[in-house]
Amino acid sequence: MATADVSTLAPRKARARSEHRVLRSLPYLAPAVLLYGIFLIYPMLDSVRLSFFSWSGYAADPQEFVGLKNYRYLLTQDTVFWTALKNSMIWVVLSIAIPMVLSLLMALALNQRIWGRNVFRSIFYIPSVFASITVAAIWRWIYNPTLGVINQVLDAIGLGSFTHEWLGDPKTALYSIFIASIWQGVGFNLVLFLAGLQAVPAELVDAAKVDGAGRWQVFRNVTWPALRPTTTVVIILTIINSLKVYDLVVGMTGGGPAQSSQVLALWSYQQSFSNHNFGAGGAVATVLLILSLCLVVPYLAWSMKGDD
After folding, report:
1. Crossing angle for the helix pair 69-76 and 278-307, nearest 10 degrees?
2. What is the pTM of this model?
3. Any transmembrane segments, and where (predicted)?
């Protein structure tokens, strides 16, 4: 009987200590939680609320409750919304397929003992610390149809017939912006994958090589499973950053030409502040929020289930 009491008493004491630590930490967490609520949670909830109202954004104008009218407008009348939605989905797919794979290959290469690898790591990471609007200005100059580096190089090597108005053509504008995003973002994912590679147990790699495994077999059976937590983080961040892409599009095309490079985040802003329709802008933002949750939460649940 005494043994049973001791066995049940120990978990209770541990649980009480844990609860006590949580209570003691609350005063330290309160400022951060307060700032998070004021600057993130409240604006997000207020944007959802505004999606059910008609409001021009001026304080003197009343907010009129219209229910689902803004959503019906988006789905049935706003053709730009569908273009923005399609472009955002294209951006997500390309971001997962190209920059993530490229950064993984670069991380595998720079994880080897090669000359100057720290220099190369720094060079590839530097673009990720630039402000997006700065990156947009750089690449607008690179894409300039007359003075830009790309067209001048094509002329210099005798391929003048391939010169193009990269940002002025509806068929190439979005993809031209995406190339700039690869240049900016691949370094950040590179650092994450490098950190993940450092955590791969060296003894497992050596054991696989002793057993006769080749490079591909070592990567598939040892390195890749160990990189799973890092890959989960990279994919989630890639999806979120792809859906909220804004600065590059604003700085390079402003959504043009003819709305061909429009994305959801930019269209939400333009509906609210350019068209003075905060209800429609809130509806676009709410769709963007739901879309992010629909993409991120199932993948996160699947990856966590796989860990179990």
Report:
1. 80
2. 0.86
3. 25-45, 89-110, 122-142, 173-195, 278-302
